[in-house]
Design goal:
The structure is a single chain. This protein has 479 residues and is α+β, with helices and mostly antiparallel strands. It has helices at residues 68-77, 153-167, 190-195, 233-247, 258-269, 283-291, 311-314, 319-328, 347-367, 374-385, 387-408, 438-441, 450-454, 459-472; strands at residues 27-30, 36-45, 48-52, 58-62, 113-114, 123-128, 133-137, 141-145, 182-187, 205-207, 212-216, 273-274, 277-278, 295-296, 303-304, 414-415, 421-422. 38% of the residues are buried.
């Protein structure tokens, strides 16, 4: 569980010119030198505002060149003009509807990506009575701010910018927001964060079932009021980018292996960031730093470097086995339905899981085959295509479980210690659905497509090839 950042790139189209109070209406625009023009707002693209004249011509101006009033107008209305995912015009009624949003990704990582500094998107959006929070919104995110939190420009820019980094990445955006916005719950302190459901030992977490990213401002190195200014951007990156990668892959997280779920988040967070610029080609430098980063062992002041796990073993473990190793240090077969182990996670073993997953992801993304991540992206696409069948299976399974729970309430039905139940012969229990494949029932859909990654190798052969390639690339491994 980890850190985030970046900028906005809208697919611009041609909207109808309207006159009146609409955000699409022709209005007077003024630049910082006092010159004016009449045009309608079309959209915002990488720091540039697209404006359309009444005769249909389109011009683009740097947002920083416009008056403060014009920048405020854009910040208030940009969400009502264009959906940056589809490039389609958004209904004036409000929230963006993205039920039919398609998967979007870049073919490869961009050579560099610069966070925009020219336009802020934050606006107050009311009060959430159920949560007891103020609501603020930027282009794609809704922030639920607990007492003592004031949304700052840096925080909104971090979230919008990280979205663009991920949208431009080979992972892409594989998640759709609820009611038009991704939700972020922000706490003033770590104590408030833990009281609000944040796990002990974490500095931020994306909760899959609630579809919400929770974080305490303290974990980001943000100064307290006034301003909540970022004092340590690198620290903010580490937690926010990791958890946002999970958020933006929400729709396929159930289908992915744990090593890729966590490895892709760690990989993205390892992309160097200096003076507002991300440099994906230098990700190897970040990987080496992460693998050899000293950490507290959890036993007094002892500092250690987490050892790597056997990559062949890591390749095939499911979620239960992942958590079991983090708690007990053992991985055992799970022929039946997965039951999550209970206990306190060991920080060194968890670091070993994360670092080993990062190394495996880096190998498949940068060192294997054509060194363009082709097989890894083919694997991701194959897993993603399982989503409709997986969703149908889960819905059928949930219907069965609900019907079974109702059946268990009938007179004469008795639950046994092993989880089975007995019932009178005159009763008919609901039929248990048959999964499309055994891997579905075990939560191991990813194993169906592992041959794409292995490319004819055994897991052990893959491990040997990976370690040789990593050493040849000059990546120093922990000892």
């Amino acid at each position: 569980m980890r850190p985030c950042l970046l900028f906005l790139s809208l697919a611009l189209g041609c909207a109808a010119i309207l006159y009146g109070e609409s955000p699409r209406a022709v209005r007077n625009w003024t630049d910082t030198s006092g010159r004016t023009l009449q045009a309608a707002l079309l959209g915002f693209d990488s720091g540039q505002v697209a404006l359309q004249f009444p005769d249909g011509r389109i011009t683009r101006l740097q947002a920083a060149q416009l008056s403060e009033a014009d920048r405020e107008f854009i910040a208030r209305h940009i969400a009502e003009v264009f959906d940056p995912i589809t490039g389609k015009e958004v209904p004036m009624s409000g929230a963006v509807k993205r039920e039919e949003m398609s998967f979007t990704a870049g073919r490869s990582w961009p050579s560099s990506l610069t966070a925009t500094q020219s336009l802020l998107f934050t606006r107050k959006a009311g009060y959430d009575e159920a949560m007891g929070c103020e609501k603020h919104r930027s282009r794609r995110f809704e922030y639920l701010l607990h007492r003592g939190v004031a949304i700052g420009d840096d925080l909104a820019r971090v979230f919008e910018g990280t979205y663009e980094l991920l949208r431009s990445s080979p992972w892409g955006i594989q998640a759709s927001p609820q009611d038009g916005f991704f939700r972020v719950e922000v706490f003033a302190s770590t104590a408030d964060y833990h009281a609000g459901g944040g796990p002990e030992g974490s500095s931020g977490v994306y909760l899959l079932e609630q579809r919400i990213f929770k974080l305490p401002l303290q974990s980001l190195g943000l100064m307290l009021p006034p301003g909540y200014r970022l004092t340590d951007p690198a620290r903010a990156m580490a937690t926010l980018i990791h958890e946002m990668t999970h958020m933006m892959m929400h729709d396929v997280l159930d289908l992915l292996p744990m090593w890729f779920t966590e490895g892709s988040a760690e990989y993205t967070a390892c992309i160097p960031y200096v003076s507002g610029v991300f440099s994906p080609p230098k990700v190897g430098e970040g990987v080496m730093r992460a693998l050899n980063h000293p950490m507290n062992s959890g036993f007094g002041d002892q500092v250690v470097i987490a050892p790597l796990l056997p990559l062949a073993q890591l390749l095939e473990i499911n979620m239960r086995q992942w958590h079991e190793y983090g708690i007990t240090g053992a991985v055992t077969p799970a022929p039946g339905p997965a039951v999550m182990p209970v206990g306190r996670a060991d920080p060194v073993r968890m670091a070993s899981l994360y670092n080993s997953s990062l190394l495996l992801t880096y190998y498949f993304m940068n060192l294997e085959g054509d060194r363009k991540g082709t097989r890894l992206l083919q694997f991701l696409e194959a897993v993603r295509k399982e989503q409709p069948r997986w969703n149908a299976w889960r819905e059928e399974l949930f219907r069965y479980l609900a019907a079974r729970d109702e059946f268990m309430k009938k007179p004469g039905v008795v639950k046994q210690p092993d989880g089975t139940f007995t019932y009178p012969t005159y009763l008919n229990p609901p039929p248990q659905p048959v999964p499309p494949r055994p891997e579905y029932a075990r939560g191991e859909v990813f194993k169906i497509h592992l041959p794409i990654l292995l490319n004819g190798k055994t897991p052990q052969e893959m491990q040997e090839a990976a370690l040789q390639a990593v050493v040849a690339a000059g990546i120093q491994l922990p000892r």
